[in-house]
Amino acid sequence: MGSFPADFASALARDFPPDFATREAGDLVEYGKDWTKVTPPAPSAITFPRTTTDVSRLIALCNAHGVAVVPSGGRTGLAGGALAANGEVVVSMSKMRRMDDVDLLGSAVRVQAGAVTEAVHRHVAAHGLSWPVDFASKGSSQIGGNIATNAGGVKVIRYGLTRTWVLGLQVVLASGEVLELNGALEKNNTGLDLRQLFIGSEGTLGIITEATLKLTRLQQGLRVFLFGVSDLAAVLALFREAKRAPFTISAYEFFTDKCLARLVRHRALRAPLAQPSSHYVLLEAETDGTSDALEAWTTSLFERGLIADGTMAQHGAQAAELWALREGISESLSATGLPHKNDVSLPIAALEAFCAELESVFGARYPGWEICLFGHIGDGNLHINVMKPDMMDKASFLAKTKEADHDLFALVKSHAGSISAEHGIGLLKKPYLGYSRAPEEIALMKAIKRTMDPKGILNPGKVIDD
Amino acid sequence: MGSFPADFASALARDFPPDFATREAGDLVEYGKDWTKVTPPAPSAITFPRTTTDVSRLIALCNAHGVAVVPSGGRTGLAGGALAANGEVVVSMSKMRRMDDVDLLGSAVRVQAGAVTEAVHRHVAAHGLSWPVDFASKGSSQIGGNIATNAGGVKVIRYGLTRTWVLGLQVVLASGEVLELNGALEKNNTGLDLRQLFIGSEGTLGIITEATLKLTRLQQGLRVFLFGVSDLAAVLALFREAKRAPFTISAYEFFTDKCLARLVRHRALRAPLAQPSSHYVLLEAETDGTSDALEAWTTSLFERGLIADGTMAQHGAQAAELWALREGISESLSATGLPHKNDVSLPIAALEAFCAELESVFGARYPGWEICLFGHIGDGNLHINVMKPDMMDKASFLAKTKEADHDLFALVKSHAGSISAEHGIGLLKKPYLGYSRAPEEIALMKAIKRTMDPKGILNPGKVIDD
Q1: CB contact under 8 A, B451 and A451
Q2: How far is A244 from chain B (nearest CA, A)?
Q3: Which CA distances in Å does B373 have to B257, B264, B275?
Q4: Is A190 near chain B, with CB under 8 Å?
Q5: Which residues in chain B (14-33) have CB-CB distances under 8 A to chain A?
Q6: Which of A72, A229, A314, B130 is 20 to 30 A off residue B92, Cα-Cα?
Q7: Residue B201 touches partner A, C-beta closer than 8 Å
Q8: Do B376 and A188 touch (CB under 8 A)?
Q9: Which residues in B lie closer than 8 A to residue A416 (C-beta atoms)?
Q10: Could you list the pLDDT tens digit for every one of the 466 residues in chain A?
Q11: B106 vs A347: CB contact, 8 Å cut-off?
Q12: What is the three-class DSSP state of A466?
C-alpha cells in the first residue's frame, strides 16, 4: 500500500523544480493507468524526471521514506503493470525522450526510456536501419516499457522478442544507485548478465532510464499473402511448408472466420477471398525481390490441396490492406461486443490438441460463448477472446470469466504453455501465475525481489506478492 | 576450499551405484581440469550421473555436507571455469548424452547437458536444421557447458550468442531442487526469466541438466571471401560496405599479417593472396545462390580502392581452405611460440582508437613483444595474443603478462569494452573483473549468489569471490 508522508512531500517540493511533480486530479487519473480498465487509478503524485539523475534522486528519496513508486511509460500495457491504484508515486518517463545519433558502424542507438517506439523507428529508418520490435501500439508505447515488458508483436518469428534487441541498459535501483549494464557490447561474458534480469521485470527490480538498442537492416522485398484453409491442422501444415520454402518467414499470423465476420461487419468490408474458409493465414515473406520461385511455391500449395483459396498483395497498398485485416481484429471485437481477452502461448506441437480441448471444454461449460481465436501462431501465441453472449448481462459475464480463466489456464498448463505470452503478469494475471511457474520458481523470484528491493518500493504488488 | 568428509564419502558409496564415483588419480587429473594449464587440478572425486535425479540427489547430499562441487562438461574452457583445484567433487556430465527426437513443427530438440555440440549438429542436420552455435572446439564441448558459458564463436554476427538458441532449461539448484524453466516456449512473459540467470553463470548458480534447443534452417548458398586490406580502418570500412551489400553477413573475421606469417610457417602453406597485406578479412556471405550481384559488389570494392587484393572460394573445398586460415591461427601461434591470450570486445566504433592505443602502449612498455590480433571483428571481438620474445625466459614473460594484462584491461575499460568477450571469467579472469563490471554490479552478483547458494557449494571461487 502506497503512502505519501508529509516530510516526503516537503522534500519533493524542496529538492525538485516546481514542474517536477503534480497532484492535480486529472493528471493522477491520466498517468496512473494503463490500457486495462479493471481497477481505477489512485496515485498520490505524478513525477516527470528529465534525466537519470532526477530519477536516481527521486528513487533514493522514495526509498528513504518507504514511498512506493510505479514506473510509467506509454501506458499501453494490457496487464495493469503500470497501474497506480494505491497511492503510489508515478514516475512518468514522458519527458525523457532524447535519442542520440545513430552509431552506423555499430548499428546501435542510445535513447532515453521515454522515447516513443515509433519515433525510434523513424529516427533509425533514415539510415536504412530498423529496431525490429513492432506492434500495434507503437505510436504510444515507449522504449522503457517495451524493455520492461519484453514486448513481442508481429515480427517475433523473424527477429525474436525485445530482449534480443537491447545491447545496453541504464537502470536505477531501489537504492537510487545507477547501473550501466553492458554498454554497447554484442559480446560480454563477464559474470551474470544482469541486464537480462531487468528485461521483462515489469518495473519490480529497477527503473530503466536509458537503453542502447541494437539495430538491423530495414527489411526489403516483403511479400504478403492471405490464405484460406480448412482447419487448424491445415494452418500448421502450411506453416511446416513455409518453413521449408525459398524465402524467410517474416510473419505468420492467423485468425478464424469468427474474427473475420466481426471485422467485415465493423468496417463494412468485402470478404478478402472469394471462397470463405474457417481459418485464415497471413504470411509475410522476405524475398530477394524475384517472384518466380514464390509463384511456383504458391501454385504447388493449391495443387497439393494445402490451401483452399489465397491471394498475394500486388503492391504496398494491397499488402497494407491484408495487414489491416489482421491488425483490425482486436478493435473489431471490442466494437461489436464485449470481449474477454487472454494471450497464451503453447509449444507449437501442442497447438492442435490444445485448441480441440479448448473448444470441447468451453462448449460444455460455457455454451453460447463465441471464441474468437487469432494471433502469432508461428510463435505458438494465441490471442483467445471470448465474447459476452447477447443474452447475458455484463456483470454475470465478467464474474463467469474468472471461472473460465481457471479452466483455460488449466488447459494451458496441461500442455506446458504460458498464461501470458507477451502481455506480462502485472496485476491482472497475478492470481494465475502458478499455472505457468512452479512454486520453486515463484519463491526464487520473490527472493531476488527482496534482495534487490528490500523495502519493496518498486512497483509493489505487481507480478508477485511481496 | 573443498572438503570430503568421511560421512559424505560413505553416503556417496551407500546411495549411488559403484561406478557412480571415482577417486582414481588419473581420473582426478583428467576430469578435474579444462584447457587452461595454469593451476593443477586436485579434486576429491569425480561423479558420473546418468539422470537429473542422480544430479539432484548428489547435490542435495553435497549441500547437506557442505561439499563443494564443480560441474564439468567437455572441459574445453579457456578461463578455468571447470577447474577443480581444491578438493571439490566434480560432476561430469559425460554420461548424460541423450538427444530426443527433433520436434520438426516447433524446430526444437531436447537434449541432456552432456550431449556433444557437434553430435547435436549432426542429429538435427539430418532434418535440414541447425543449432547455430559453432566454434572450433565443438567436437569436444558439451551443450551444458555451451549454455553455462553462453558460448560465442564464428556465427555470432549472424545468429547471436548461445543465449538466443535456448528455449528451455532444466536446472538443479544448490538445494537439489529441480527447476524446469520455460519448457519449449518462444514467448512466455510471466515474471522474471530465470533461465537467463543460468545462461553464462559458469555453474555458480545451478547445474544445467537438460535443455530444449531452438533450431533454425541449415544455411545455404554460402560464399566465402578472403580480402587483403591496408589497415584496421580499411577492415572497418569494408565491414560498413558489407552491411549494405546484397547478402546477409554470415561471418566477418579478421587476422593480421603477423598471424598469417606464423600460420604459413607452421603449416607450410603458400600465401593465400598474390599481394601481401597487413590485414586480412574473411567474409562469409549468405546469398540466394546467384553470383551476379555478388561479383558486381566485389568488382566495385576493387574499383573504389576498398580492398588491395581478394579471392572468392569457387567450391566447398576452397571455402574450407579459407576457413582453415582463420581457424588455424590459434594452433599456429602455440606451435611457433608461447602466446599469452586475451579475448576482449569493444564497441565497434571504438575498435580503431583502441587498437592504435594498444600498439602505442605496448610498443612503449613492452618493446619487442609481438602482438597477434585476430577474431570476430564484426562483433567487436578481438583475440589479442602477445608472443613471448625469444630472448625472454618463460617465467619472466608470464610474470610480466600479469602487469601487461592490467595495462590492456585499463585500455579496454577506457573504451567501455569487455575483458572477456566469450571465454568467461572462471578463475583466470577473476582478478580483472572490476575492469568490466562496476562495484555495484559485482555486489549485486554476490547478493544473488548468496540468495541462491547460501552455503556456497556451487563452483566456489569462480567468477566472484564468495
Answers
A1: yes
A2: 8
A3: 9, 16, 20
A4: yes
A5: none
A6: B130
A7: yes
A8: no
A9: 183-185
A10: 457 899 999 999 999 999 999 999 999 999 999 988 778 999 999 999 999 999 999 999 999 999 999 999 999 999 999 999 999 999 999 999 999 999 999 999 999 999 999 999 999 999 999 999 999 899 999 999 999 999 999 999 999 999 999 999 999 999 999 999 999 999 999 999 999 999 999 999 999 999 999 999 999 889 999 999 999 999 999 999 999 898 999 999 999 999 999 999 999 999 999 999 999 999 999 987 667 888 899 999 999 999 999 999 988 899 999 999 999 999 999 999 999 999 999 999 999 999 999 999 999 999 999 999 999 999 999 999 999 999 999 999 999 999 999 999 999 999 999 999 999 999 999 999 999 999 999 999 999 999 999 999 999 999 999 7
A11: yes
A12: coil
Please indicate whether, in this complex, the C-beta atoms of A191 and B464 are within 8 angstroms of each other: yes
Q: Convert A290-319 to b/e letters by CB count within 10 Å (16 or more is b).
A: eeeebeebbeebeeeebbbbbbbbeeeeeb
Phi-psi region of A453 (alpha: psi -120 to 50; beta: other; left: phi over 0): beta
Using alpha carbons only, give the angle B316, B317, B323 rounded to the nearest 5 degrees. 90
d(CA A420, CA A425): 7
> Cα–chain-centroid distance for residue A156?
11
Report how far residue A277's alpha carbon sits from residue A309's, in angstroms, rounded to the nearest whole number. Answer: 8
- Strand A207-214's sheet: what is its strand order? A108-112, A207-214, A166-172, A178-181
A30 CB-near residues (< 8 Å, 6+ apart): none
Residue in A closest to B451 by C-alpha:
A447
**Mean pLDDT across the stretch B259-269?**
96
Q: Which amino acid is at A375?
A: G
What residues of chain B, 282 to 341, have a C-beta less than 8 Å from chain A?
288
Cα distances (Å, whole numbers) of residue B77 to A424, B158, B425: 37, 23, 10
Contact yes or no for A194 and B417 at CB 8 A: no
For an interface test with A, which of B101, B133, B163, B192 has the most A Cβ atoms less than 10 Å from its Cβ? B192
Predicted pLDDT at A289: 66
Give B170-195 as a DSSP string. EEE-TTS-EEEESTT-S---SS--HH
Q: State the DSSP string of A134-158.
A: --GGGGT-BHHHHHHTT---TTHHH
CB-based contact A106 B348, cutoff 8 Å: yes
User: Residues 29 to 68 of A: which have CB under 8 A from any B CB?
Assistant: none
pTM given for the model: 0.97
Q: Would the ipTM clear 0.90, i.e. be above it?
A: yes
Question: B-chain residues within 8 Å CB-CB of A201?
Answer: 192
B222-229/B166-172 β-pairing: unpaired
Contact B162/A at CB under 8 A = no
